[in-house]
Amino acid sequence: MIKIAIVGLGIIADSHIKATKELAGVELVAVCDIDPEKVKRYSDSANVWGTTDYKELAALDIDAVILNLPHWLHCAASVFFLEAGKHVLVEKPMAMSVSECDEMIAASEKSGKKLAVGHIQRYFSSIKAAEHFYRSGELGKLCLYTENRTVNYFDEKRPRWFLQKEKAGGGIVMNYGAHAFDKLFYVMDDAKLVKLDSFCGNYLNSEDIEGHAQIFAGFDNGVSASITFSGYTSSGYDAYWYFTKGALRVRGTRCEVDRGTGFEKFEVPFELSPFAEQLNEFCKYIGGKPANIPTAEYGRKVIAQIERVLK
């Protein structure tokens, strides 16, 4: 039985808690948040211990923690728990900079405890579909990837720390670019990024983060990618994987494939929900088994490209 604590009871805490219930070999032991009302609500509903100080968790009989914290706390909290002898699954982005990633990796190596990064979208059916077609060759050779995301990034409901570079590390690129680079690196795990160009800005307000961006990437297998983020209005998300014999289209959560006769719905069956699959792979990883979980070194690779974009 792997005993888990969840630190940070923000928007995706429910998904992490549900994941612990899906897996027979996992037990949720404790929850933590700086908001005492959240702690009481979640600890009561899950019937687990709760605290507002994550450092108190170090004394508990737990194997690992899931860190669902603001970006600026990822490094400090990860290092603390690794040094306390706990494995860590930290939400993406791994940290705000490559130097922070290096500090986290050093703590993992010194303690002998595993550090992994929660790039959740690789467990979505649409990315599994892209992986399938890329590796099977059923649609021929992959040529191009395009992604377009339009969202009201400055919505009043978004926690204010997201809009402060010193606490978030960046804006729309730091947040959604981590997903985009993970999709490309994961699906094309045999390719290397050899070219990168980008344009970023904020034409809406005086916040010190980017509100829009375009990223152009080239890989050594000949594939090129174009990623467009607009953070000023809300309309949706679509992505295309273009192959020589067809294409895969993702619109929101709907995945469609065109084999030359038009787009049709395509689904990849899975036994576990994405968050449960991620947690299951994390448990394999800390148990020394082969696992499909982003390692700390992989998370650093993503942050390195985001740093390049923002510079």
What does this structure look like?
It is built from nine helices and 14 strands. It has 311 residues and is an alpha/beta fold. α4 (98-111) runs antiparallel to α9 and α7 (172-187) crosses α9 (296-310).
* Cα shape: globular
Average residue-wise pLDDT: 97
Question: Widest sheet: strand order?
Answer: 8-9-10-7-11-12-13-14
Relative helix content: 25-40%
Percent strand equals 25-35%
Find the count of extended strands (DSSP E, 2+ residues): 14
List the secondary-structure elements in sequence, H or E. EHEHEEHEHEHEHHEEEEEEEHH
Terminal residue distance: 45 Å
Please tally the helical runs, counting DSSP H or I stretches of 4 or more residues.
9
Q: Which spans have pLDDT < 50 for at least 5 consecutive residues?
A: none
Oligomer: single chain
Structural class call reads: alpha/beta
Helix/strand layout:
Layout: E1 2-7, H1 13-22, E2 26-32, H2 36-46, E3 49-51, E4 64-67, H3 71-83, E5 87-91, H4 98-111, E6 115-118, H5 125-136, E7 142-150, H6 165-168, H7 172-187, E8 193-201, E9 212-219, E10 224-230, E11 236-243, E12 246-251, E13 254-258, E14 263-265, H8 274-286, H9 296-310
Parallel strand pairs: 1-2, 1-4, 2-3, 4-5, 5-6, 7-10
Antiparallel strand pairs: 7-11, 8-9, 9-10, 11-12, 12-13, 13-14
Helix pairs in contact: 1-8, 3-4, 4-9, 7-9
